Amino acid sequence: MDDEPLICLPGQRLCLCDKTYTSGQGTYERQGYIYSQLAGYVDIVEKDGVKIVEVHSSGEQTVVPAQGDIVTAQISIITQAYAKCFIKCVGDTVLRRPFRAIIRKEDVRATEKDRVEIYKSFRPGDIVLGRVLPITEAHVYQLTTAENELGVVIAHSERGHPMVPISWTEMQCSKTFIKEQRKVAKVLPEKISKDFMQSSK
Amino acid sequence: MAEQYKSLHPVKYYRDYLSHNIRPDGRVFDTFRPVILNTGSIDTADGSALSKLGQTTVVCGIKAELCKPKAESPNKGFVVPNLDLPPLCSPKFRPGPPSDQAQVLSQLINDIIENSQCIDLTDLCIFPDKLAWCLYIDFICLDFDGSVVDACIIALVGALKTVKLPFVDYDAALDNIQVNLENTRPLPVHSIPVSTTFAIFDDKIILADPTVEEENLCTGIIVIVLKDDELCCVHKPGGSPLSSDELLGCIEKSKKKVPLMRDLLKTALQDVG
Amino acid sequence: MPIDHKRINGPEDTLPYQLFTKLNRKSLEQKYKELVQDGKRHDSRAPLEHRKIFMKTGVVSQAKGSAYIEVEKTKVMVSVFDPREIPNRQDYSLKGEIYCEFKFAPFSCEKRRLHQLDAEEKQYSQIMKKALEATVCRHEFPNFQVDIYALVLHNDGSALSAAITAAGLALSHAGVPMYDLITSATLGIQKDTILIDPTTIEERICRTPFWKEKEDNEHGLVVLSMLHTHNQVAQFYQSGSISLDKLPHLIETLEKACADTIPVIQQCLVKHVIKTIKKSSNVIEV
Amino acid sequence: MSNIRKTIVSNCEKTFLLKNLAEFNRLDGRAFDEFRKVEIEFGSDWGCCFVSLGKTKVIAQVSCEIQQPKSSRPGEGILNLNVELNPIAAPHFEADRQSNEQVQLNRLLEKCLKDSKAIDLESLCIKNNEKVWAIRVDINVLNHEGNILDCASIAALAALAHFRRPDVTCDGEEFVIHSIKQKDPIPMVIHHYPVCITYSVFNSGLYILADPTLLEENVADAFLSIGLNAYKELCGLHLGGKADLSPEIIIQTANKAAARASSVVQQIKDAIEQNNEIRREQKDGFCRLANKRDPVELVEELSVYLDQWSTKKKKNKRKSKEPKDEQIEQEVKEPDITADIKPLVAGTAVLVPKENDDGDAIKVWDTSESEDDAVEFVELPHPKVETVDIADTDSEEEAVIVLNADQKTKKRKKRLT
Amino acid sequence: MEATKYRCNLDILSRPDGSVLFCEGKTTVIAGLYGPVEVKIQKAHIDKATVDCHYRPKSGLPGVEDRLYESFIRNTCETSLVAALFPRSAVLIMLQEMQNDKQLISCAVNAACMACLSSGIDMKFMFGAVTAFLTKDEELVLTPPIIDKDIKALFVIVFESTEGRILACHTEGCFSKEQFNQAVSICEAQCINVFKFFKQTLLDNK
Questions:
Q1: Which sign does the torsion angle of CA D239, D242, D243, D246 carry?
Q2: Is residue D155 over pLDDT 90?
Q3: CB atoms within 10 A of CB D286
């Protein structure tokens, strides 16, 4: 970031829209000019010789999940065919209001799709990482966990104690050592795991 | 990262803080948030005040209207308090009729007004069985960040102190009402109730003046209202059980707040004159 | 009036005491004359002078974005919330929706307002919605709804304009993508007198048709909202009866008033942006 | 949403019930025209009574306040009835929500008690055009085991008959309300005692069951509710549902209901009498209920009912154990109701197919609603006076005030802070 | 001091899973409980049962005042029920006022506890409520004074049965801290009788 960030307001004309400059996040193009959509600061990103003009909001951004985003969600209801959940974070941004989403049985994992059982993959209350699928139905977001890095990251055993992953299909209760089945995400971000291990003590 | 942690596991987030004897907003368990009181700034109301308790903001406006007293109590006026929790003040609330929470709090405030006897209903009578004042006391929460009752009671007292009622001449024979706007009198306020909210966290830690997050995560709420040295409300609607010593401890803590509130009110009203 | 079982009810019928005051019954003619005396209005403003505006963002901590506007005595709070799923919606809409609610606090006007939205409030909500739809990039949040709530704490005229201006500020504060900054202004007209930013008393005089029988019984209120950079009209509302010939002049006057408000909004937003940037850079440094 | 927590009547329950009806048996062992036991208890407050009709239980409370009379009836008091279907009575009832069922019950009760002019409203007037007593009857349904209407009508009537309002005296200008301790309260003036008697209709009137239970109500094609007083005067008749009944059946049923009505009214009067005597000694009210153990209350098992059933059968005739087509005709003549009906419907009713879908209670109610127009009214013994809706005139008055308010406030001087 | 007389009739209603007619002195309340039953989706919790309470006055429609009672009883029941056992379901507690002799709240709380007990739903502990009255002569009594005006303050205190801690508390009127303390201790003593009565009733009903 520059020492003096360039502050702009909605509707402010930023520059001409031509071969070198194109409109990016937080801006719009009208009659050959790029205008700002937000109150924030201007950022210019160079990509393939094109300068993308972006405006970043100063405070929290208003985000809605979009196709391809990695989201953090909490499972609320499981059925035979799908698990319902609430999206709590999109990327690093924490949402003030959760969005509803579902994970269908066939999107739980990449292999042996026909042998997936929802109850062996997720339980209500689990925190999962998922990727947003293209929006087909009008209302609900669909998520997939069919990647190694996606799946359950935080779960509690039936007794209510936190569990530790022991394989990509199993987690173990830290108190009772009972194993439960889950679709476990492979990589845990270091910090979160550390935080949780500490707090659970 | 902390944000996400808080969003996904709020209870643990809080426990981590509280285990170090501090609350996420930097207060220790017993401290109250700063209080701001502004009085008489809305002149369409007959009395008004705005109170801020940390972020929690409540505006109280009093409108006086004339009406006929009830046949059962011909020498009493009316006080009609209502708390509105509009969708403006928090994403928790939806437009429409008052939520259960708003109703419960309205009634609690009504009880406090009644129990503390801060308004003597006979003061509101103009002519027995014929004419009396009806005070519509409307509270609107502008920012819902916990301990709303406390903020309401502060605003209530501030607003009551600014009420000025015009003189009314009532001719019983002709049933004629004459209002004299030039000549007004203040409403006698007989006591100053001071309310304190406590939250019980994890069945044992008692937090004074909780924020909305603390209220959501806690396992019980206590509201204690004092007027001078007397108690006029100890309201604990369920939640984690407490020993009587713990409850008395809360009363002791809230007692300390009384002189502070009294001074605040005095200072606030001085400027209005 | 049916009893509301979800509120504490007072006695059945109460009357405002103002009904029984000794009124110095001035004729309408006289009132009109007193509207502007020696080129000054009752609050010693010139007819085309706007009252001072104070604006602040971030007044509601629980909301995504919020703004407070004070036009001398008129005080309005607006809060804006994150997009949410549209309740009971069956079909897919490419553009997001805006939900507006404009409410007068019960004690904000001379006559006590009831808690339920009345016809006037519903109409104002609609006007506000239309005005804001023009400035919000609704395609950025398809199938979602942004809630905007405006609450008038004290009404001393031109409350709708104040609410629209504040809502624009609150939306921008909330980080909702917008095409432009929006400002709004009100104007009252009675016969030949044109008053910018009328107070409650002036509004009332302008609303009443005084000389019904005469031909030039022009009277009424005009509210205009403008998009600043693109210089486009976002909303136009007129009540009463105004001749078509006069309209261009009125619009011109209002446009100017709208433009005059822009610096206040800009200042307020820039202040907010600087503050948050400082805060975040502080965090990074630490 | 109203279907949440709704108990569904299964097809086998339905067929079982209908099969039993074909053999002239009811599941609880009652005869077709037999009613469940009515019990009336009064509380310590005036005008409070708890009525059970079998296991259906209702509490009614009468309250009064002084109001301005309706401008169309300046010399009459006001009577309001309000039935509440609480979730305590059945889990699918929702609190604070007017269901169709509730509206219908309210209307039927109003027809029976209010429109029949059973209560003397003129005696409730304190000062013409100024002050009258407004009487309100709140009927809270506590347990829904069928036939709420009858139970509620008994409760409402008993409560009204028991109620006493405080005395009011007037010394020229002032009205003084005397508390109950100061002056003896005044009972209501009741011209006649009307109650509702409900029947369930199966197979277009082939079987008509008095005082239906919950299951019978849900399976029945229609219900016939007759408002009657002890003098055999009709106070409202309502046929809801989808049965094609011949007028003769209705009249015959109404005749039978008349006998029932007079016995119920007698019971109400006796209960009040008895209560008045008890009141002198103790004022415990409902506390008596606490230690009361009604053996019938504890009967829960179906087997017990079945025992009863067989004993009843024995009384009837041994023959019924071999149900043969010809024999039914003979058997039919035993209980008097069926004997009444049989000849009328013979031939037509036999092959009416019974509804086999899961048409539960709601359905029955709904259809009855849509057929409201088809409801047959039998002329009331008292001339029915048209109630003029005064809402219009009222609101006009209000509007005038509001207008004035606006204009006057305009001239109000601005107050300084 | 005359002891308050408790009387009750269990399972007075056939529809609810548990019901009771409960008398405390002359105050009488009928309570019924359904649960766990189906819950509206908007109200469902993923980790526990939703506890809902409906209080009905015997005359008039329930108003704002009754909402306060409802929330008081609802929260008390929610704390004592093991709600975590029935996620995504509802427990409905319904109360009907029958007769009021100034001990309505405590009677309603006790009736709610009896209804829970009679339905057999899992509970962490029993709860019992006692009403104490402070008269104009600054005297604490458990039996309601005959004249309303003699009451200076009123205390309703709810205790749990395991350690005798205060579960809920509601007061009306003004009083000193010492008087409150005193009221707590006399209520505590009386509450033992309430629990005794609960246990005896359940034994008798076997």
A1: positive
A2: yes
A3: 26
Considering only CA atoms, which of D376, D109, D364 is closest in space to residue D227? D109
Distance (Å, whole) CA D89 – CA E32: 9
D174 found inside a domain: yes
Pick from B3, B8, B16: which is nearest to A127 by CB? Answer: B8
Note the pLDDT of residue A137: 61
Q: Is residue B62 part of a domain?
A: yes
Distance to chain B for C117, nearest Cα, Å: 9
Query: Where do the domains of chain A lie?
Result: 7-57, 70-199
Q: Which residues of chain B are within 8 Å of residue A130 when distances are taken between CB atoms?
A: none
- What is C104-122 written as a DSSP string? E-TTSSSSPPPSS--HHHH
For residue B119, tell me if it sits in a domain.
yes
User: Residue D112 carries which DSSP code?
Assistant: I
At the top level of CATH, the class of C53-285 is alpha beta
**CB of C278 less than 8 A from some CB of A:** no
Which residues, in sequence order, are CB contacts of C88 under 8 Å at separation 6+? Answer: none
Chains in contact with A, where contact requires at least 3 CB pairs less than 8 Å apart? B, C, E
Q: Are strands D222-229 and C84-85 parallel, antiparallel or unpaired?
A: unpaired
E16 and D95 within 8 Å at the Cβ level: the answer is no
Segment D241-270 shows an average pLDDT of: 89
E18-24 β-sheet, strand order? E6-10, E18-24, E27-37, E90-99, E50-56
Residue D243 is part of a domain; what is its CATH number?
Answer: 3.30.230.70
SS (H, E, C) D262-280: HHHHHHHHHHHHHHHHHHH
Q: Find, in chain B, the residue whose alpha carbon is nearest to that of D417.
A: B43
Backbone angles phi, psi at A163, to 5 degrees: -115, 155
Euclidean distance between CA atoms A99 and E15, whole angstroms: 39
A53-62, B39-48, E4-13, E167-176: which has the minimum mean pLDDT?
Answer: A53-62
Question: Does residue B215 contact residue B146 with C-beta atoms inside 8 Å?
Answer: yes
Residues C134-180 have pLDDT tens digits of 999 998 888 889 999 999 999 999 999 999 999 999 999 999 999 99
In this structure, whether the domain defined by E6-204 belongs to CATH 3.30.230.70 is answered with: yes
Beta strand spans in chain A (E): 7-8, 13-16, 21-23, 27-30, 33-36, 40-47, 50-57, 70-78, 82-90, 93-104, 127-132, 141-144, 151-154, 163-165, 170-173, 179-181
**D307 domain-assigned:** no
- Residue in chain C closest to A26 (alpha carbons) equals C177
Q: Which of C16, C24, C26 sits opposite D409 (nearest CB)?
A: C16
Separation between Cα atoms, residue D105 and residue C160, nearest integer Å: 47
Q: What is the phi-psi region of residue E4: left when phi exceeds 0, alpha when psi lies from -120 to 50, beta otherwise?
A: beta
Which residues of C are less than 8 Å from B181 in CB distance? Answer: 21-22
Residue E79: burial class (beta carbons within 10 Å; 0-12, 13-18, 19+)? buried
CATH class (in words) of the domain with range A70-199: mainly beta
The answer to whether position D1 is within a domain reads no
Q: Which helix (H) or strand (E) holds B132?
A: strand B131-143
User: Which structural domain, as residue segments, surrounds residue B177?
Assistant: 15-272
What local confidence, expressed as pLDDT, does residue D325 receive?
43
Instruction: Provide the CATH topology of domain A7-57.
Output: OB fold (Dihydrolipoamide Acetyltransferase, E2P) (2.40.50)
Determine the residue among E59, E64, E71 to mutate to test chain C binding: the one whose Cβ has the most chain C Cβ atoms within 10 Å.
Answer: E64
Residue among B111, B231, B243 whose CB faces E180 most closely: B231
Domain encompassing residue D374 = 11-298+335-351+360-409
Per the structure, how many domains does chain D have?
1
Q: Answer with the residue of higher pLDDT: C88 or D247.
A: D247
Q: Which residues of D fall within a CB distance of 8 Å from B129? A: 174
What ipTM did this prediction achieve? 0.85
Phi–psi pair at B205, nearest 5 degrees: -80, 130
Report the alpha-carbon distance of residue E79 to residue E72 in Å, rounded: 11
Closest C-alpha to C104, from C71, C163, C152, C150: C152
Q: Where are the domains of chain C?
A: 53-285
